[in-house]
Specification:
The chain is an alpha+beta fold. It is built from five helices and seven strands. The protein has a single domain, classed as TATA-Binding Protein. Helix content is 32%, strand content 33%. A seven-stranded antiparallel β-sheet has the order 2-3-4-5-6-1-7, covered by helices on one side. A hairpin with a 4-residue loop joins strand 4 and strand 5. The longest helix is centred in the N-terminal third of the chain and has 16 residues. The two termini are 21 Å apart.
């Protein structure tokens, strides 16, 4: 993460997967978010973390689509995003809503120019944004999940962990 911060002033975007959720609950969560996003007072509102005074002001929120550069076809409802005034983002994606359950994917990206934050563990630096994502989505209520099944981190995060947690005589 340190490398990315120094070059881009932005963290990597870890992914939190909540696997094999009840499809009905996962789809209801996405509908809940769509309803919030279309309310007239959501854009410009401040969303506050639950364990600190950190808050994020909503710049925009929407459903995103993908346009194929080859054939021009458009795939809608590819995920929901909230972009904040400071450049931070939250993305919710839903996949596999068949009979065996759905996977809710939560991506979080916090923007910072504060070099003191660059060496922090990603989970600590992202905690306020994760709290906001969980609160606004009511993910726990809709999926009955307390924590993700899988957390995918970037190569930079893994490298930083290796550099700070493995003694040099092992190399």
């Amino acid at each position: 993460m340190l490398c990315s911060y120094r070059h881009h002033c932005v963290s990597d975007m870890p992914r939190y997967d909540y696997e094999e959720c009840e499809s009905e609950g996962a789809e209801a969560m996405m509908d809940h978010l769509r309803k919030i996003f279309t309310s007239s007072d959501f854009k410009g509102s401040s969303l506050k973390a639950t364990s600190s005074d950190t808050s994020f002001k909503v710049a925009e929120a929407d459903d995103f689509s993908y346009k194929d550069p080859i054939d021009g076809s458009v795939s809608t409802k590819q995920g929901l995003y909230i972009k904040f005034v400071d450049g931070s983002r939250i993305i919710f994606r839903l996949s596999g809503t068949g009979s065996s359950g759905a996977t809710v994917r939560l991506y979080v990206e916090k923007y910072s120019k504060d070099e003191k934050e660059y060496g922090e563990d990603a989970q600590i630096g992202l905690k306020p944004l994760i709290e906001v994502a969980l609160a606004v989505s009511k993910l726990k209520d809709f999926t009955q999940r307390d924590k993700p099944d899988v957390i995918t981190v970037s190569a930079d995060d893994f490298l930083q962990y290796q550099l700070t947690n493995v003694s040099s005589n092992r190399w």
